[in-house]
Specification:
Layout: H1 15-19, H2 25-41, E1 45-48, E2 52-55, E3 58-61, E4 67-70, E5 73-76, E6 83-86
Antiparallel strand pairs: 1-2, 2-5, 3-4, 5-6
Region (Disordered): 1-26
Length: 93
């Protein structure tokens, strides 16, 4: 029986394909966020879950035992607004 892949994982998709989903002025903002987060993290962007541009990677584990991995810094570009994600311990990093 095949193991189900977690939704939050690097997909190998081209970053520009995800950025193209942000149109008009949002595209320029998405490009600028890419530059800023790459500079802050020192990492190259990677597409996660087919919609998130992530920088770096961290593993997490809850008290329940559930865990996974996620980007340290990330954002999801969109035509109306962008969403920015930070690891919960980002400030300590």
């Amino acid at each position: 029986m095949a193991t189900k892949q977690p939704a939050m994982r690097p997909t190998g998709e081209p970053v520009d394909e995800v950025l193209d989903r942000a149109g008009g002025p949002r595209r320029a903002e998405a490009d600028r966020l890419r530059e800023i987060l790459a500079e802050i993290s020192g990492e190259e962007p990677v597409v996660w879950a087919s919609r998130i541009i992530g920088f770096g990677e961290v593993e997490y584990r809850y008290e329940s035992g559930h865990g996974g991995r996620m980007p340290v810094l990330a954002y999801s570009p969109a035509s109306r607004q962008h969403t920015i994600y930070l690891a919960s311990d980002y400030e300590d990093r």
